[in-house]
Each structure stands twice: as C-alpha cells, then as structure tokens.
Design goal:
Helix content: 40-55%
Shape: globular
Distance between the termini: 7 Å
Order of helices and strands: EHEHEHEHEH
Strand order of the largest sheet: 2-1-3-4-5
CATH superfamily: Response regulator
CATH class: Alpha Beta
Length: 131
C-alpha cells in the first residue's frame, strides 16, 4: 500500500468520519485526511482543488447520505473531471452499511469506483480493498 498525499472521506455521519480518519492515519495511507458530512461541500472542495497539488488521491464515499447519495456524487464528480479533462482522477472507494448485492454490483460497473467496503470501516477491510 502506497502512502498518498491526501484522502477525503464523504459520509453524513460525523462518527463514521472520525473512525475513517483514524483508520486511514493508523495504517499509514495518508497523514492528511479531510472529512465532509455534506457531499455538496466535498464536491465544492474538489472543484476548488482540481488543478492543484492538493487534489486528493483517494475518496472514501458513503452511498446513503442525506444531501446527495454516493451515486449522484459520482455523476457530479464525473462531470467535474470530464470538464477539466483530468487524466488521473482520485480513486473512489464506496463505503456502506448496506449488504445489498445490487449496490456492490452497481459499484463494480462504474469505472471511477476502485473498490467497495461494507462497514464497519476497519484496518483489515481498508488494506484488503487497497491491494
């Protein structure tokens, strides 16, 4: 597992964000982890950072959120990176409490999604999906 400059976590549950931040730092994935409880705020951040070295390498994205679900987030993220003709966008890893196989299949069919983690967000599960 290669250390990256920055990771963002998008989950409407602040406690889940704290857990994710802790695990990411503990396994040495990144020292810089930003969390967003509103998906729209994460999209605004990405829009601001798209042409900078501060653009994150990895996004951990919850599927079921209040303001914008993970699927809609991906559509808006795709529009953002397509507009900028970005050649190497952030890797997206979906995180969810859902055990619905349809969610996993849907994620597998989206080219921007690099992996799928069923909560709880643990060191073992993150290491496994990053391999």
């Amino acid at each position: 597992m290669e250390k990256v400059e920055q990771v963002i976590v998008v989950d409407d549950d602040a406690t889940n964000n704290l857990i994710c931040e802790s695990v990411i730092k503990k396994i040495g994935l990144s020292d810089k982890v930003l969390s967003f409880t509103l998906a729209q705020n994460a999209l605004l951040y990405l829009q601001e950072k798209i042409d900078t070295k501060d653009f994150p390498a990895i996004i951990f994205l919850d599927i079921n959120m209040i303001d914008l679900d993970g699927w809609d987030f991906i559509q808006q993220y795709r529009a953002l990176i397509d507009k900028k003709a970005m050649k190497s966008p952030a890797k997206i890893f979906m995180i969810t409490s859902s055990i619905d196989q349809a969610d996993q299949q849907k994620a597998a069919n989206i080219d921007l999604v690099s992996g799928f983690i069923v909560k709880p967000f643990t060191e073992e599960r993150v290491r496994k999906v990053l391999k």
